[in-house]
Description:
By secondary structure, this protein is an alpha/beta fold. Helix content is 32%, strand content 25%. The protein has one domain: P-loop containing nucleotide triphosphate hydrolases (Rossmann fold, 3-Layer(aba) Sandwich), CATH 3.40.50. The strands form 2 sheets. The protein has a 7-stranded mixed beta sheet, sandwiched between helices. Helix 4 runs parallel beside helix 6 (177-189) and helix 6 packs parallel to helix 7.
Amino acid sequence: MSNEDVSNGNANDADMSDADTNTTNTTDPTGRVPGRPLLAGRGLVKTYGRSEALRGASVELHRGEILALTGASGSGKSTLLHCLAGMVRPDAGAVTYDGERLDALPEKRLSELRRTDFGVVFQFGQLIPELTALDNVALPLMLAGTGRAEARERAGQWLERFGVRGQQELRPGEMSGGQAQRAALARALVTGPKAVFADEPTGALDSLASEQVMTALAHTARESDTAVLLVTHDAQVAAYADREVRLRDGIVAAQEVTA
Ligand SMILES: Nc1ncnc2c1ncn2[C@@H]1O[C@H](COP(=O)(O)OP(=O)(O)OP(=O)(O)O)[C@@H](O)[C@H]1O
């Protein structure tokens, strides 16, 4: 089931109120969920030099929802994820997080929000190579003020939960790609974020490791009502999402229910 051009806003529609998004109690054919989204981008435009990465894309992410962003290489998926995660400021349009205009926040408040409310997982290299898996996962807790012993204990529980047992004292270079990626997920989730941004989290993994990572991510998201924005090229990975939004040339070309 697919709906063409259902969600491209225009930058003038960027301001969003509850009334905009709360007009129905039924899920529409695109799978869009009623009620105020946790995170929304409206009419997002981002240009790099002569390259128009986003040309007015709009997308909504709800609590507990796993949303796959798909599309050809260069269609703007990562740029959209970066705008929604507050890592890149759009040239036009609005990003609203929990009722607050994210794109207009001062850098200090934005960094704080990213630390407290968001988790990120990328394709490669986000673990600190000098630290063990345990210390990598404990780090965000320590940065948030948790003491080292408690942070390490909680990190150990998260690693266990993600099936990283017996390798907690290994450094990332000593682990398999799948184990390292599950440790990276544990690190993204250990602080209890409301939203997780995963850009090709399984891009460097074989299909078994990819399945293990996605199962762990989907399970935790459901259990803790965490919203997940997932950029992927892989249809098998996108199948873990509740909904798929397909980008083409910087705008939303289609969205459909996948679950
Ligand atoms: N930091 C940047 N500097 C210059 N151009 C950029 C930058 N980031 C993205 N672009 C350009 O914007 C367009 C969209 O890129 P983006 O990475 O968002 O697409 P994508 O769909 O994630 O691609 P891929 O699947 O290949 O990762 C591309 O033409 C890209 O070259």
